[in-house]
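Journal club prep — side note

Before the paper discussion, L.F. wants everyone to see what a predicted structure for a comparable chain looks like in token form. Sequence:
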Amino acid sequence: MADTKTGDAGDAGGRGVTEGSGLPVTAPWIRTRLRASPGAAWALALLVAVTACLGAAFPRAVDRYEDAGLRAAVRQAGPGQTSVQLTGPAPGFTLPQEQNEAALWGATLRGQYDRVRPVVSRALVIDPAQSAYGVRPADDPAVPDTWIPRPNGLPAHVHPAVQSDLAAHATVLQGRLPRVSGRVTVQTAEVEAAVTAATANSLHIRVGSVIHVPGEGRAPLAVRVTGILTPRDPGGAYWSTQPLLRTPTLVALPTPDRPKYWLGALLLAQDAAPALLGTDAAPVPFWQFAPDPRALHVHDLNRLKSAVASLESGPGLQLARTYTTPDTDVSTGLDDVFTGFGQLRSGVRPLTALAAFGTGTVAVVVLLMAGALSADRRRTELALLRARGASLRGLAARLFAETGVIAVPAGAVGLTVALLAVPAGRSGYAVGAALAVVLTACAALPARAALTHRTVRVHGPREDVTTVRPSRRRTVAELTVLVLAAGAVEALRRSGTSGSAGNQLVSLAPVLVGVIAALVLVRVYPFLLRRLTRPAGRLRGVVAHLSLARAGRTSVSAVLPLLALLTALTTAAFGGSVLAGVSDARDHAALLSVGADARIDATAPLPAQLPSKVGGLPGVQGLAGVSITYDAKPLDGLEAVPLVGVDPGSYGELADRTGLGAFPQGQLKRPARSDAVLPALASPSVASAYGTHPFLVRLPDTSAVTVRIVLVRDATPALSGADFLVIDRSGLSGTAARPTSLLVTGDRVSGAALRSAAGSSAGVTVRAEERARYVDSPLQSGAGRIYTAAVAAGAGYAVLALLLSLLRAAPERAALLARLRTMGLTRAQGRRLLVLESLPQAVLAAAGGALTGWATIRLLAPGVDLTSVALASTQSPLGEAHLRTDPLSLTVPALGVLVVAVGVAGVQAWWSGRRGSIRELRAGDTR
């Protein structure tokens, strides 16, 4: 192998590398080098392709899940909140009647719609198929027709409306669409209308039915139903912006007995609106524009907010009034949707940035290690080229071109795969990431070669890690990194992730902590080796002493692998702890919400046979029946406190199993005397309000109990609120003591089986289903997947960094084993030698990585809030979810480093033993 390198160097020197040359790079020299080591070329190409693919896919994946989250937020809000609705004023009484009628004609409204639409389209991409215009009533008049159902004796109300393009959005089930014969005016006595099937069923309307809308200064307007329709897209904005158009509703009056009446829509013909001017409906024109969710992108969020604000109270509103009427109002809930999504995104995005910076740093270190490995393997060749007169700039240019021939096509392949694998998202950032990977790969080898061979010499001095003193420049650089890391950690602790979305230094805090720890361990590494050498020298065998001596003779350039390993381990530990914290937060929030693995709740006492029925279901291990009264009044006051009556035995076991306010069961049991004061368990707020003296609590059934707070707990399984009182339900009256809820425990509780057993009179909540509710946003689930992928990629690069560091010394180790075998070293001793030689750095990296990961989590935990990632709503009973140390995330990656190091050393010793010693002992071998 050495002869081949020398020959290539000579060939290179004869093909244009002259003293002080700045000659262009010649293809024969590059082709010769690639042919000399095709395996290394393919390995570099694979590394660049994979790294470029991951780098290019990351920003597009972030764009994709953020866009999906924004669109999901818009869809979840519903068309009623997200549509842009323009509403004109009611016709003026001072205007001529003909002018009021003309303002409601379909042609007039169509012209105004066409002029306003470009104004709205400047802000939002409009879905014309779901947008509409027309006339709707400002008031919903009551109708005197007694054949329409009256649930509480109240007359039904109707909503006579006109909406454009009804035929394109509905299918006629019976009859036909309404029509207009002649010109409709305020004096028109009868018009036609259609209703949806849901309205017809609820209000008992048939084809041919006539509904009389009370007139104002005239006879009632007769509305004849000519058709019954079914919406083609009932969930679309056309029908759901005003859900009343497709679905009637029972309206409850705000009185104590809350009587109800029916309210349904009548869909009039397009030009029939002027007839409503003579009724109590007070018709007003409207124009509604439905945004197209598919056209919403997160990178346009700030522009969208500004555009919506302009429509509501800015230049957009002025233009809309110019094209319609001076009193037109614009209303939409898009600004609230955008603001809520922005708050959720501001909590999720910094954590994703932490993962991106960590994995990206490790990937860059691995690329630099690949360049350093190539430069070290070709040290003799490059030194010979410099000795023959090659300039440093010319040599760096040739190495850059040689690497570029490999890296550029590989980066293009990786970019193409990323674009195909993640079709959505912006391409600019993906191209930039792939280009950065290619430039890093191309610059690693020439930069390392230029640094090593800046002075012309054939034989360089030995640079053993145990003997070389760090330079002043290195000391200054390390102190600079230390200051940056300390500043980033302090900034994160002070502001938290929610306030650091644009601060890249804060996002780099875990990486900087890992970097400074690596630099510190590199300083400590020689000292530890010297301390271990003394006791090893007193051992009887030579393997331990020789392995430590070999570990101490490692070149100082091996600090780069240690840096990569520590950074990767720190990032993996931090990322694993984030994922574990998110999972634990969701589990705990679901437990707080449900109180057990499942629960059955009813507003009235549960059937007496239900506990035995539920207890026999598969998977049910325990039951705790509780009676919950939300209107208990302590001290005859006006404020109510939820009172929970429990069986202290079963409820105490449940509280102990769930960890929600465990208590000694005996302290809550009712005393033997029937008139004794009942001991109570209370929340801190209730205990602070009522103290520890006995006080009377009145119940809604007119009974009363006297209680005394003896236990205070922050939480209890039966209730998730901040206020509660828990007592022995045997001290309650017969009605109040009957259980209204069943708390069920079990490993595999079936929600379907519980619902079947409970029937329709009770509601069932399952903990597993409640947990799934906390990840209903694509923004959260996407961020979780990105974080998982980043942690996996970081672990893969950590293993690759370890392999590169071991491969760098593989030829030298093979030659050493061959020479030692000639002196009587056995194969078993050779395996132990290689394993022990690789252990010091691996143990240092594993222990240092675990310790650094633990310290990083402890330092950054106060500033990292996982609530946005963990929970779908900040209104969950959990409150805030903070980062915690996950032992598996600390130990598994560290143990993986040790296993890989020992495994590679063992495989190398086995392979060297199979090949024999002839090749390694050839004359002229320089490795």
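L.F.'s comment for the group: The CA atoms of residues 595 and 719 lie 7 Å apart. Keep this in mind when we get to the figures.
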